[in-house]
Design the sequence.
């Protein structure tokens, strides 16, 4: 016995498409084009988001394993596809530029014991860094980080307008083809003056296929859009959190946060106006009182 497999709904779709009017077939062709664009965005965006998630986890693990926020930048480590890495690299480039062209040299501080904390020590790496940047230069670094976050957010959301258009417009385009087909069907029946189910069925079937195709376009796009927009928002929130963490680490280590008094004292010390080593010694106290030049007369 020979087993023949037929596609699901193949007979109904084939019959309806054959009976569709020219306007209905044009509508279906337009929906097919929209579907091609939609599936192209779905596949491309899915690959981008999967790579962003995977490489982002690797980048965060590598970054948080270091003490120096510029260590990975100096080693030229790459995490292609991770939006957080692109933000990190942009901030690293800006900070390296100011460290090279607008440096602030401070005096290195030696080991300092924290009082009352059981001998705990402060961050020696930050205290040993002698080349820093000014707060004004740090503001430029923060602006660069914010601009990089915005660029990555736009890159993640690129193409989502196609999915939202397919979700909102697909059913309406199909409905337009259906209404148009039904209108022509009833017009033909009225002209022929033969109102019967046999005369109406082919035209109605050919009209309804436009709505079916419109739903086939909109339903996958709707599920993909909801999933992807949620993932994009999660990655964007991660970028905002990382930017705050990165800026705090840079400020702690590479920004000159001395007070005005400390800056003046360091400037005077570099100019040679340090505190004199010589101190004046107080006058020595006399060993004994001097003898009086006058003697008391006997009474």
Sequence:
């Amino acid at each position: 016995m020979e087993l023949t497999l037929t596609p699901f709904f193949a007979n109904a779709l084939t019959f309806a498409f054959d009976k569709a009017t020219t306007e209905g077939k044009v509508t279906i062709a337009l929906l097919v084009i929209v579907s091609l664009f939609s599936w192209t965005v779905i596949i491309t965006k899915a690959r981008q988001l999967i790579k962003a998630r995977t490489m982002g986890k690797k980048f965060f693990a590598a970054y948080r394993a270091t003490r120096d926020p510029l260590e990975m930048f100096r080693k030229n480590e790459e995490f292609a596809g991770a939006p957080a890495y692109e933000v990190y690299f942009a901030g690293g480039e800006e900070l390296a530029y100011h460290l090279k062209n607008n440096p602030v040299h401070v005096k290195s501080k030696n080991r300092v014991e924290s009082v009352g904390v059981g001998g705990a020590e402060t961050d020696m790496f930050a205290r040993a860094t002698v080349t820093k940047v000014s707060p004004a230069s740090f503001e430029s670094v923060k602006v660069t980080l914010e601009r990089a976050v915005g660029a990555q957010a736009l890159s993640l959301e690129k193409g989502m307008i196609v999915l939202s258009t397919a979700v909102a417009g697909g059913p309406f385009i199909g409905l337009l083809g259906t209404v148009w087909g039904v209108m022509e069907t009833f017009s033909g029946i009225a002209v022929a003056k033969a109102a019967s189910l046999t005369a109406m069925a082919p035209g109605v079937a050919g009209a309804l296929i436009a709505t079916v195709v419109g739903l086939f376009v909109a339903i996958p796009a709707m599920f993909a859009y909801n999933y992807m927009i949620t993932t994009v928002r999660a990655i964007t929130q991660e970028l905002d959190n990382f930017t705050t963490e990165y800026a705090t680490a840079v400020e702690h280590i590479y920004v000159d946060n001395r007070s005005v008094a400390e800056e003046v004292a360091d400037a005077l010390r570099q100019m040679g106006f340090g505190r004199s080593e010589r101190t004046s010694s107080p006058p020595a106290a006399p060993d004994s009182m001097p003898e009086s030049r006058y003697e008391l007369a006997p009474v």
